[in-house]
Amino acid sequence: MTKLLVHKTNNKFINNIDLSSMDFCSKLVVDTTNQLYKIYYKYQFSHAIFVASLFNEEVNQFILEFGEIVKIFIYNDISINFPYKKNISGIIQKDKTESKNKIIALPKLVNHEVFSNSNCNRINQIISFLDDVDSIPENLNKYLYPLSKLCLKLFNNDTIIHPQNLGLLSEPDKASLLQQSDFYLAITDYYVPEAWACGTKVLTIEDLDSLKPNRFKSSKSFQSYANFLKVLLSDKK
Amino acid sequence: MIKNNIGFLLTSIDNTEIYDHILKQIHLLIDNNPYKEIVVFNSSCDKITTHNVPILHLNHAKFFTGDLWLFDLTSVIVSKNFPNIQRKILYCNDMPWIKNRTNYYSEWQKIYDPGLEFVTANQYLYDIYSICWKNPLDIMEQFNYEKIQHIL
What we know:
The complex is a heterodimer.
Chain A: E1 2-7, H1 12-19, E2 25-30, H2 36-43, E3 47-51, H3 57-66, E4 71-75, E5 90-93, E6 103-105, E7 109-110, E8 123-129, E9 152-155, H4 171-180, E10 181-185, H5 192-197, E11 201-203, E12 223-224, H6 225-234
Parallel strand pairs in A: 1-2, 1-3, 3-4, 4-5, 5-6, 7-12, 8-9, 8-10, 10-11
Chain B: E1 6-9, E2 12-13, H1 17-32, E3 38-42, E4 44-45, E5 55-57, E6 66-70, H2 73-78, E7 85-92, H3 96-99, H4 105-111, E8 116-120, H5 123-132, E9 138-139, H6 145-151
Parallel strand pairs in B: 1-3, 1-6, 2-4, 3-5, 6-7, 7-8, 8-9
Helix pairs in contact in B: 1-6
């Protein structure tokens, strides 16, 4: 069976891999700092996903030494250019629309094990996840206190200081909030697939006056993380 | 007149005017409600003059029966499993989630559970607590015994 090592960090892609059950491989999602070689000799993984923002000398050295034996993928969360690509099987990044040489465009994925429509009672509130933004968009300010008393709650960005920003969320917390809320405000489309999967109406900032979805009217279905990894790991070098 | 006994959970009483004012108001509340048990629970008190208000150690709060007024997050957390409290009222004069932005929302949800009532120190906090948690019972700009009687 395929043995997969995944660099543990708090981002959507890695969190959802961690939470997905995969019968085609055995996965180990772990912080590898100062123990990557130890993990390799103990666990003998055949595939690895390293996260670009966690790169250090140890990971670089490991890729140079074991890139021929272990199929190594990089999740390029900080969009850097890698000088050596020979030993890397693929660079997964979300900001490419088409796959090029060794660059694997990350499609929109949903973890259906976590994000599903539970048909529980919903509260008339609007929630938004600020994972993918650096600051509150200017056109949103008129819907926030003190300019508005709209029941809009913001989450998951500790750099944004606003009284309606209510703290961090794990992926199951996000699912639970989406299942309990009538509306999800999509500042970017980062969590739109998950909101659809939970049966939550998706609004843009422009829809906040009418509370009727315009841009994200009809939901689509998306590939699961498990499926994406199954295809990724089964690809020949 | 108030319906239930009232406890005030002031984890520490500093030797400042704010606490002097709170104790004075509790004293007036006791004078106005002589047949109710009104008591302060505390674990560290720096004040010498406490206006003759009964002060018990925090340990005794656990089995207190009545309404409990809370003033900070510590007291909310400490009183979480008190079995005989009829109503818990948090006097809000700040928004702790802004200062502790790396905390998880689930932790805040546990602290601000639906059983906890709020009284806010101003209109701004009243609106924010209404949007983020639930409608506060009232606004009480300064700790005032007449307002407490009115709220309860």
